[in-house]
Amino acid sequence: MTVLRARGLGKKYKRRWALADCTLEIGGGHVTGLVGPNGAGKSTLLNIASGMLEPTTGTIEVCGGTPGSGAAQLAKVGYVAQNTPVYGGLTVEDHLHLGARLNPRWDDDLARKRIERIGLDPKQHAGKLSGGQRAQLALTIGIAKRPELLLLDEPVAALDPLARREFLADLMEAVAEHGLSVVMSSHLVADLERVCDHLIVLVDSQVRIAGDIDDLLATHHRLTGPRRELDTLPSDQHVISARHTDRQTTVLVRTEAPILDPAWTVSGLTLEDVVLEYMTNPVTARPALEVLR
Q1: Contact assessment for residue 136 and residue 165, using Cβ atoms and an 8 Å cutoff
Q2: Do 131 and 138 form a contact (C-beta atoms < 8 A)?
Q3: How far is 231 from 235, CA to CA, in rounded Å?
Q4: Strand locations in 76-188, DSSP E?
Q5: pLDDT tens for each residue of 170-197
Q6: Which residues, 6 or more positions from 240, have their beta carbon under 8 angstroms from its beta carbon?
Q7: Which residues form the ABC transporter domain (predicted)?
Q8: Which of 49-58, 125-134, 164-173, 248-257 has the lowest mean pLDDT?
């Protein structure tokens, strides 16, 4: 099952393209991390997927329908925007009443138990809550509407480490309990590695790499050895980046085959290493493998 499919998707503001010719596909049942540099189009993509924006070009399908096309479609998607917006003048209780009025699948029992468990006072105005509490309130509303897909745009960017950890733990609990598919954008790769099983790196609106995180880590290697030309490498070693000194070559490769050349010292990579290499090397030195699904 595919929960999000985009083909040639673009959004233009006057003369500036915030997203251009974006093509990607996200399968259901995953917690997918969406990462990329500022201006890559992550927030624009999520806004279009939620129905908050209409695309200028291309097509997008979310949970089998067109984003924002009606009440039934809106009910399928939960969305927590980058600043975890809540209404400062409304109490926590008011937010739950509003959620119940606006969402046909609203699970009031889930929302109230969650509010009690995380220690929010129903009478407290949202404007008086801490950043972490506001994020938890926004997440509660997103989960309690019982969506098929939950979109999170930098939900923990402004939180301190403890509040981030609590938010992510609650997110994983909700995924386990309710079978949510999640797409979460973040600059914090360590947080993505903690909660995501799937990753997409978006650079200049283009998918640079996508796949299961375990597979990505298992198939990327750093090779260090005597200086050599790249065309001497086996054809199944797809070069992502290469650096040379007078005597040494260091290459990051992607391959599913074992590396048998004894001249190489082979080391593994962290997820952050992989992400940064794809973000800083927009064109591979040799053609990359087909994007994982």
Answers
A1: no
A2: no
A3: 8
A4: 77-80, 149-153, 181-185
A5: 889 888 888 899 999 998 898 899 899 9
A6: 220, 252, 253, 254, 277, 278, 281, 284, 285, 288
A7: 4-229
A8: 164-173
Residue in 54, 57, 49 with CA at minimum distance from that of residue 10: 57
Residue 159 main-chain phi, psi, to 5 deg: -95, 150
Q: Which residues contact 204 (CB under 8 A, 6 or more apart)?
A: 20, 40, 41, 282
- Predicted structure pTM score: 0.89
* Residue ranges of domains in the chain: 2-204, 219-280
Walk across the sheet containing 181-185 and list its strands: 77-80, 149-153, 181-185, 31-35, 198-203, 206-212
Two tokens, residue 65: 């329908």
CA torsion through residues 33, 38, 40, 41, sign: positive
* CB half-sphere exposure, 283, CA atoms < 13 A: 0
Annotation: CATH topology of 2-204: Rossmann fold (3.40.50)
DSSP lists the bridge partners of residue 169 as: none
What is the DSSP pairing of strand 206-212 with strand 57-62?
Answer: unpaired
Q: What's the start-to-end Cα distance of the chain, in Å?
A: 12
User: So what's the pLDDT on residue 282?
Assistant: 59
Classify strands 2-13 and 57-62 as parallel, antiparallel or unpaired. Answer: antiparallel
Does 287 or 164 have the greater pLDDT score? Answer: 164
B/e letters for 169-192, b = 16+ CB within 10 Å, e = fewer, are ebbeebbeeeebbbbbbbebbebb
Q: Which two tokens stand for residue 103?
A: 């969402």
pLDDT at 287: 37
Identify the residue whose tokens are 């993509």. Answer: 45
Going edge to edge, which strands form the sheet with 16-27? 16-27, 2-13, 57-62
